[in-house]
Amino acid sequence: MSNEIYKEIASDYIRNLLRGDLILIVTATDTETSELHKALLPLQKEEKILKLFEGAYTYYFGVFGKYRICHVQCSMGSISRSSSITTISSALLFLKSRVVVMIGIAFGVNEEKQQIGDVLISESIIPYNSKRVGEKATVQRGIEAPSSQVLLSRFKAAIITWEYFLSDDVLASLIPTRILSGEELVDNKRHRNKLVKENPDSKGGEMEGAGLYSACDGRADWILIKGICDFADGAKGVEKEKRQRKAMGSAINACMEVFSSPGSFQYFNIEIEQIVANSSGDNKKASETLFDLYDGGKEKYYVERDNDLLFNQKLSQYGVWVWGPSGCGKSNLILRNLQQKHPTFIQVNLAYCGEVNVDEYFNELVYELSSRTEKTSNWQNPKDFKDCIKTLLALFSKHYKDKKLIIFIEEIPISNDQTYKEFTERFFSLLIMKGLISGLDQIKFVLSSINDPKIDIAGHQQKIHQQLSFIEFDYWILPDSNKLIDLIEENLAIRLETSLRTELISKSMGSPRFIKKFFRSVVALNRFDSDSLSKILIETERELNY
User: Fold this and answer.
1) What gap in Å lies between CA 471 and CA 320, rounded to an integer?
2) Among the CATH numbers 3.40.50.720, 3.40.50.300, 3.40.50.1580, 2.60.120.10, which is that of 306-472?
3) CA nearest neighbour of 226 among 96, 122, 104
4) Could you tell me if 51 and 128 are in contact, meaning their C-beta atoms sit under 8 angstroms apart?
5) What whole-number distance in Å separates Cα of residue 83 and Cα of residue 207?
6) CB burial class (10 A; 0-12, 13-18, 19+) of residue 346?
7) Which of 46, 105, 360, 494 allows an S-S link to 356, with CB 3.0 to 4.6 Å?
8) 243-284 per-position pLDDT tens digit
9) Strand order, beta sheet including 319-323
């Protein structure tokens, strides 16, 4: 990191901060430290991150999320001279911190069920190097240490709310688990599997956790949060830096979810950094201007584009399937135009189904339609897809013959290519069969997805083009992004410098989700100096994996 972001100080300068309410954050590598510092903001009334040389260690003071923190880096491992146990012990003596969070990278143990960027939450630490090796058996002698129950509860709660995209349609997972910790840099699949066989409940391992709990035992609550960067399978050196930064970015973002809540550390009497809040009216205005989900009250904050006209033109003749990358505004465009021109449409959200078999998606469609039309929850699951089609066509014929109906199936939550192909082929079959029944021609479907559905049109399903038009959406063009920023600046009375505005547009790559996320963070932190805005832009880029 450039020295331009730091202000070097003497210990007297931060004497007022050494009251035990600084949260200590620990990393173990230069990559981990570099990525963490990108997410830090200066303390109130400071323009830079504070940097202090104290004894053998270097401490950094700033704001992470909503909390004052001190960061220190140890060396890899738990027992060497500058390892986690000695570094954390010295830091606790100096800072008197009551909470310690170690953030970093770890190895996973299952390439099929885990992915680079998934985040491990320590339920406990298992020190696997302490053992008795006999002729017939190896007996683990290290004492397993449980993480702070309060901190574990806070991070488990984040599982429900945290959303971090590793790619356009792949979300990272938060994985509470017993974490292996040892002095070995494990990069051998056979050895990894041996460790897992001895500790089958563990989902990953690393090198500093044993020192973390030893240093904190009886002195501070602690937890370890680490992103998976490899699988200890002999390929640790392949795209090493890229994978480590991806894993660290994911871990930092998961921590930010907890550190952004005003109540996360109330148990320890740790208060948030005092930031001058906007008035409630301004907060309401910001919420409306930066809306996630369109409704009629948000119309004046909506940027109409050429795609709105195209969508309405197509829908006047056919059903419409909109597809394109996540974050390009598909759902809000559809909702806005349906609400304005077809207010009685039926919306079906398949996200509640998660990743299930294809029949469940169509069963959900039956449930939504029958609950709207039959006014009863007493319905039977169709026996199979054929029965499902019969039920849907019967409902259409009974309630909507010669009537207009639009069914909006919001972004289809299928990432598996084969499952997606099966869904589209079955859906096309439903439409073709509907087209054979008299009086149902005014029933139209509107769908949205990330994947291109046209590639799954079978040869015998070409008639689908008589009922459905396909529109590809991309990220916004430059004039539309500028219109959105103009609208936000006008309503929130924020003015970006030309250079920052250009950088924001460049990094957003035309995603309205990115632009709104950036402004939400600006409003939440109430920081408008150039250094803070640049930091917020970097963190937005990290959070949305751009």
Assistant:
1) 7
2) 3.40.50.300
3) 104
4) no
5) 10
6) middle
7) 360
8) 999 999 999 999 999 998 888 999 999 988 754 434 334 567
9) 346-349, 405-410, 443-449, 319-323, 468-472
